[in-house]
Amino acid sequence: MKSVAEILKEIRPEFDFTASSDFIADGMLDSFDMVTLVSALDKNFGISIPGTDIVPENFQNLQTIDALLRKCGAQP
Amino acid sequence: MISIQTPPQVLDAIQTAKAGAKAYCTNFFPVESKLQSWIDHGELSAEWHPGAAFFFRADRDFRHFYFCAADQASLEQGMASSSGLKAGQVVTDLVGNEALLNQLLPGLETAGFRKHAQLQRLARIGRPETSGNTPEVGFAEKGDAPAVLSLIESLFDRYGEQLPLPYELESAVNGRQVLVVKLAGELAGVLFFETQGLASSVRFWAVAGKFRAQRVGSALMQYYFQIQPAVRRFTLWVDAHNENAIQKYRHYGYAPDGLIDHVLVHRTTL
Q: What is the distance in angstroms between the Cα of A63 and the nearest Cα belonging to chain B?
């Protein structure tokens, strides 16, 4: 199983996701990347992130993504 | 079909389609601010089908079609019974890599869509070296908006290239996202961009016919790079068959990043 950081690195290898506290505001993930990320997280962790949780605040940084995964029953 | 009034309605619809999805598929990637703007301007409506939510966005005399579906079968069944697809002119974009699009395309063609254009995304990683003075380039002013829109509408495909509506362009001008060159009192060229943090996208780069071969386009692009010192990722969409444009972008370091957009029009539009 890949880590969230590894998945992010695959989507946008040019950015250092550990150095940002807000991926969206920093332009590191665009709207297409968000959908790609949700799909990758669903597959990797065997969950289904609810559509109502696909909002920018849940994808701001590694901590918020981690919290979202735990809420969805994953063990990141 | 109902008119969408709030962003949560959209999220709820996505949730309905996504719940229990085995092979979720979508072409709906709304940026929050744009979603709110579409709702504020009464442009967004929706219809629901088992396992699928469809959204329609009004644009000039046609509508963009977006889908969120639990799987391909739900998408195809929804399209077969959609009233929205049968009412007026409808255009849609299939965005993704080639393999994904080849899976979805036959279903949309069965539902009455036909290929209209193909765009590809180009990306440039890292800020380019820039040189030379570009004194003729400046930010568009409010009074420039009609001429800018007219130039964009005259040179780009309204179905395929997400042309801005007048209110969007006015907002972009106010937000200093539109660069212009004026020569002899006329609009010679325009570069419309959107920057968010470390990423920036060129939406339109155009030079009026009578001002071509006068380095107007080059001045616009140089100036654009000069005013984006923090940006690390530059992107844009280009007609995949427009070799002339692609060559120009390659000159500035852009290269395909693997993302493709098939622009499809419904048979009622043809």
A: 20
Question: In this prediction, what percent of chain B has a pLDDT beyond 70?
Answer: 99
The third-level CATH classification (topology) of the domain covering A4-71 is: 1.10.1200
Exposure of B23 in the CB half-sphere (CA atoms within 13 A): 8
ipTM over 0.90: no
A residues 14-73 lying closer than 8 A (beta carbon) to B = 14-15, 24-28, 30-32, 34-35, 39, 42, 48-52, 54-56
State pLDDT tens for residues B3-13.
Answer: 999 999 998 99
What domains can you pick out in chain B, each with its CATH number? Answer: 2-118+262-266 (3.40.630), 127-231 (3.40.630.30)
Q: Whole-model pTM above 0.90?
A: yes
